[in-house]
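Lab notebook, bench 4. The sequencing result for the construct came back, and we need a structural model before the next group meeting so we can plan mutations. Quick request posted to the team channel:

Model the 3D structure of this chain.
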Amino acid sequence: MRLILHIGLHKTASTAFQTLCRDNADTLGAAGVFWRVHDGYPAHHDEAWSLLRGEAGAISVYVAEARAAGARTAILSSEELDYVLHVPQKALAMEAEARDAGVTEVIWAAALRRPSEAFRSHISELTKHGIHLDPLQGYLEIMRSGGLHFSGRHNGGAQFWNWYFTFDYDRFITRLRTTVSGRVLAYDYHAEHRLPGAPVLHTAAPAQPGLLDALTAPGRVNARLSDNDITANLAAILRAHGHAEAEVATVIEARTAAMTLAASNGADAVIDAGLDARFGDYAHLLGYGAAEEPVLEEV
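Done. Here's the predicted structure in token form:
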């Protein structure tokens, strides 16, 4: 049994990949690839949260379900699992449970994206969760630490989140490769293919070259918000903090003016160029990090 742990990264078409696998679960199953289908959200976040909390059983139950379905490969996907890049001891614990469950090959899979694009997409996405990220503040934190870290209560509710958004691919992907016993597949978000996460699916069923052609693409999923949607989210954040409508309008107007100025005077371009110059050279990380790609055999 082969287990693929797809860890995102965040804002690299993970939701599109998960939607693709959910919508084509039967076709994948016929090719020997297991994907657990949940009602509602397509990702395996519940399983990931259980693993990150250190609870035993999530992988063993998943693998048993895959084996009962006659699969040779099981894919578990949640961008919440990119936490293992920052706490690789979690990855070791997951691999140990997988081995105990009879898994003979563990593959970690992560998509890498041009840092400037990922950064702008994060700014948009965070507004959905009640977080405003100032571009300069975010840029300085990424240049200092190699990523962004957010923790707190999700939208003020009971669920606690702990997000690490990785930009220093060289540091963290390399560390994961040197820590785990399984292989780490890094693939390029920008590679041209009609299906998101195509390298993961190729790895899942190397003996099924026609599988990708048999899958139905998911279309646009979780695309970046429009400027109007971002503005509406920021206004909602301000209202949640007790601002009156006149104050909300004043702050939004000031933000719009600041954004226009940053675009016109080149500040945004400087930030984006700085991120790409520091972290954008990741071609050497793609694949499995070996001089020659291994030939995958069915397990």
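The longest strand covers residues 105-112.
Will bring this to the meeting.
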